[in-house]
Amino acid sequence: MGVVDESGKVIFASKKIFDLLGFNQENDIREFNALDWIIPEDRTRAASDFSRIAQGSVVISSQFELVRSDGSRMPVEISGAPIRDENDRLYGIVTIVRDATARRQAEEELHAGKIALLNREAELNEAQRLAHIGSWEWDAVNDTIWWSNEYYSIYGIATDMPTPDYVEHLKAYTAESAGRLDIAEKRAMESGVSYEVDLELANPTKTTKWIVARGEAKRDVNNKICGLRGTAQNITERKKTEGQIRALNEKLEKRVAERTADIENKSMELKENQTALMNLVDDLNEKTLELELANAKLQELDSLKSMFIASMSHELRTPLNSIIGFSSILLNEWVGPVNAEQKENLASVLRSGKHLLSLINDVIDVSKIEAGMIESIAEDFDIREVVDEVVDTLKKDIEMKALDLRVRVQRQVLHADRRRLLQSLLNLLSNAGKYTNHGSIDVISEISADGSWIDISVADTGIGISETDLGRLFLPFVRLDAAHEGSIPGAGLGLYLTKKLVRDILKGEILVSSTLGAGSRFTIRVPVVV
Ligand code: ADP
After folding, report:
1. How many degrees, rounded to 5, is the angle at CA 283 between CA 279 and CA 284?
2. pTM for the whole thing?
3. DSSP track, 220-253
4. Is residue 358 in contact with ligand 1, taking CB distance under 6 Å?
5. 97-116, pLDDT tens digit by residue?
6. For the chain, N or C: smaller number of CB within 10 Å?
7. Does ligand 1 lie within 6 Å of residue 516's CB atom?
């Protein structure tokens, strides 16, 4: 405490003041003017305070800064009041100086705290914005509602708009969501049960359609419920993803079900097929057995047929030989003259008889071969002689067609069935004559390099055979179209029989090459010694 006069001159100063300013008590107080202790910037204000007090005012807690003896500054609060003598003359101003360092510090801290709080709030706002989580509080005592910035933004409301009240706020949701939230909030308020509910907005914003609302009761110092607080988080994206996942799952489940059904069907089908297959195998076994029996019967029948044909043909051959013999005798006029017309008729009888005989001979041979009844007689003979005999037999027919017949066959002794070789070559040369109208026929022989095989070929410049027909040439009773068109006699047995004779009796093979319209070449290849 101190006393100063109107100009600030110190009349009295307590020890505390000296301590405060850092002066010794011994210093003469009259040396000081209180204004000197006040920092220059505050001096004018202090002087005006003094003069105001001198005029009768009381000043309480004026803030100043003092300069201490060591030059450091100190915040103080100065209160002052006038002291008057009995004549109401101003005696002095009593001043109370209080160290305001602590208070200033407290104020500064408060200020810093406020700034920190603001910063925290800004940070919280930022965090809420990033997390899409907004928060709110409802104070039941004062019935005030507070919303965070993000809470506003979730509902698409500008932050400077007034906060909607509870009933208004419920309208933000669909009726169903609002109903659930209302129940949850009332329960939280009544019995303090926290809640967490997914809610759908009635009028969704661009970014928010779904939120998850979490809430809990606020309690006062006496643990009494005094309000609610909660958060709302935008879960639209999550809901969307959940929806997509659900749809995907449903699709997947459907596909799995389809596949399973498919597999079940397939396995059922498979089972049915298996049964069918087993039945088929049974049937097949049965049929095979039947077939085997039928086959045995057929083979029996076949040899019976062959034997029948052979014996029938023999029966036919005998009268046919008479027909041929007697018509020939008549034609040669050995029993008397015949006129031209009779000659022609007799020639026709003879030709038909011969044709029939050759056909019957072929049939007999085929039957015998098929019945395995033909026996082979091997002997030594000269192939050249056999070829000459063949040529002699057919020479007349060939020359009649003005074909050039050339024979180039070496002498070569073979050991084989002479009669069957002769028969085979007769067939080939006869065909060459029948199916050649212009050009030539060549009969050629060729011995293999090691001398073990001989080829006897009959080549003509006749009508030829197409490539497709070559395959069926050796089948029984097959005559190619050209043979029919030319009304050339034949039954389609010659080549079939020849092949059988060459293979089965002569142990060789028959080869053919031909060009349609250019000619054919048939070759009998047989071993020199069977
Ligand atoms: P065919 O009695 O009809 O002459 P083949 O068995 O000897 O019976 O001959 C079968 C068929 O092969 C004949 O009808 C004919 O169409 C054909 N053929 C046989 N030899 C010749 C050949 N040298 N040139 C052309 N076609 C031939």
Report:
1. 115
2. 0.47
3. -TTS-EEEEEEEEEE-HHHHHHHHHHHHHHHHHH
4. no
5. 998 888 888 988 999 999 99
6. N
7. no
